[in-house]
Design goal:
Layout lengths: L1 H28 L24 H18 L7 H27 L7 H19 L15 E3 L3 E6 L5 H26 L5 H22 L2 H4 L11 H22 L8 H18 L6 H4 L1 H19 L11 H7 L4 H28 L2
Antiparallel strand pairs: 1-2
Helix pairs in contact: 1-2, 1-8, 2-3, 2-8, 2-9, 3-4, 3-8, 3-9, 4-5, 5-9, 5-11, 6-8, 6-9, 6-13
């Protein structure tokens, strides 16, 4: 418990207190946010707002994680926790390259779409391979399994049943698909001041509950009790979740409307990769669709808009996608959209946690 409190408190204080100095530094370096020409005209006043704030909250989360372990030596650093950190930093680094390219060129396009996906695939592949290694000496568990999971592993969806070669190949494809989808979905959602930040805090709250509940109901804690969880290092996954959530709360102070700093792709890809890693290592991969329901709506609106535009040769369903821009063009205030979308994210979080809990009750 001490590790959880220290990790969250340090990460929050680090981001909250360091951000003003970072904003001043970014102003001097000229790392201002370029704005899409084809976006809502009301966004043009945000041109030049400091970006890449994800650098600060990722550092805060990583620092909080390690400080929590340093102050509470009874909770050792684990392979699972380090894998989530790897995904957070790795996908964040891809986003940083994209942000840096944008600010250097002073245009809203940085890396090409395939370059970004390529970077994410490299990070996800390294993560996937390592997640099948590092078997725990006591429980014999590895951080991840090759089974697709919902509330726990679905045994008839164990990809290894197809043989080791095909099974590993499909497992790598699945982990890459999940990682790229989630990280880009968060990136799409990050279009209004504080929107993605608040939604992610709520999604992480679900994983704080899930990780801690799995720790309390772990098979090595409660024996072979009915419904116990065979998840490696659930407490450490909770510590990572608390550290990032605390860091994002500190960031939200500066990112709330009117935002003084944006997270950039550094932040959105980083936290998207983290959510994907948490889903994989807590064996709740399909449940992430519910917990991150707002991300699915945002991304789905883009897919529907583009498909409908092509099929109808120029007609549109929404005034602009992602869907938060549609409501902007209908006259909704940005703060109103953000708060209502936070409410939706909260509802999805509650439904996701409820499904997880009732899945445990019925197991």
């Amino acid at each position: 418990m001490i590790a959880l409190l220290v990790a969250g408190a340090f990460a929050l204080a680090f981001t909250l207190l360091l951000m003003p100095a970072y904003i001043r530094l970014v102003h001097r370096l000229g790392w201002g946010q370029p704005i899409r020409v084809d976006g809502p005209t009301t966004h043009q006043i945000k041109r030049g707002t400091p970006t890449m704030g994800g650098l600060v909250f990722v550092l805060g989360a990583v620092g909080g994680y390690f400080l929590g372990h340093a102050i509470a030596p009874g909770t050792p650093v684990t392979a699972s926790g380090l894998l989530v950190i790897l995904m957070m930093v790795g996908t964040g680094a891809v986003g940083f390259l994209d942000d840096f390219t944008k600010t250097r060129r002073q245009q809203s396009l940085g890396l090409t779409g395939w370059q970004k996906v390529g970077g994410q695939v490299i990070v996800a592949t390294v993560f996937a391979v390592l997640a099948l290694m590092f078997r725990d000496s006591d429980s014999g568990l590895t951080p991840a399994t090759a089974a697709i999971s919902a509330i726990r592993d679905v045994h008839w969806l164990d990809l290894m049943r197809l043989g080791p070669v095909l099974g590993v190949a499909l497992y790598l494809i699945w982990i890459n698909l999940l990682t790229v989808s989630v990280s880009n979905a968060v990136n799409v959602t990050d279009g209004l001041d504080g929107l993605a930040t608040g939604a992610t805090i709520l999604a992480l709250s679900a994983y704080i509950f899930i990780g801690f509940f799995q720790f309390k109901q772990a098979c090595h804690n409660v024996g072979a009790a009915r419904g116990c969880f065979t998840v490696r290092d659930p407490l450490d996954l909770t510590i990572v979740s608390v550290a990032l959530a605390g860091s994002l709360v500190g960031f939200l102070w500066w990112n709330a409307s009117p935002a003084r700093v944006f997270m950039g792709d550094t932040g959105s890809l980083g936290i998207g990769g983290t959510l994907g890693a948490l889903a994989i290592l807590t064996h709740t991969e399909l449940l992430l669709i519910v917990i991150g329901g707002l991300y699915c709506i945002e991304t789905g609106s883009v897919i529907i808009q583009r498909a409908y535009f092509k099929v109808t040769h120029g007609r549109r369903i929404f005034r602009m996608s992602p869907i938060h821009h549609h409501f902007e063009l209908k006259g909704w205030e940005q703060v109103t959209i953000t708060i209502r979308f936070w409410i939706l994210a909260g509802l999805f979080m509650v439904i996701g946690v409820g499904l997880f809990y009732f899945g445990w009750l019925s197991s």
